[in-house]
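pasting for the record
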Amino acid sequence: MLRVLSVFLTIVLLAGCAGTTRSFYVLTADGSPPSGGGMSIGVGPVTLAEYIDRPNLVLQEGPNQLSVAEDHRWAGDLANSVQRVTATNLGRRMKTGSVRVYPWQRDGEIERQVTIDIRQLHGGADGYAVLEAGWRIYQLPERKLVASRTFVAREELTSDGYPALVAAQSRLLAKLADDIAAGMGR
């Protein structure tokens, strides 16, 4: 574990000294696509903690210290990516092809709305990715609160480097979808 930590920190330091080569990353969904209809679900809006609402990947170097990976960036808007991946994961868990992302045209088209507040989403010098998110499920169109919870999880990186970090963050979003699906009574 100490070796993984030292290699990870070395990669971070070397990345800061590197030229202008930039790498771009995307979060990915897991599971098999659903086959058919099912409950109509809307995912969003998704809000991000200010420290991660940026194009760069973020690493926690100590209890109160973060670093921003200047040459390692998200391929698009992180909030939109979290929303899209969570919607895909949730549709697969709920076995429905009827999942939309915020904003949608009419609430009457959606049975359940999931809002998500991402409070933490970063890598750590300890070789783990962390996710803390508050989520709420509303029954539409009356906007009745059905369930609400805070989800906290850590996922070990399977190897060193930023691709492993983003893969671990994708796995954390899959676990978040599991938690939300359980709240819907999957």
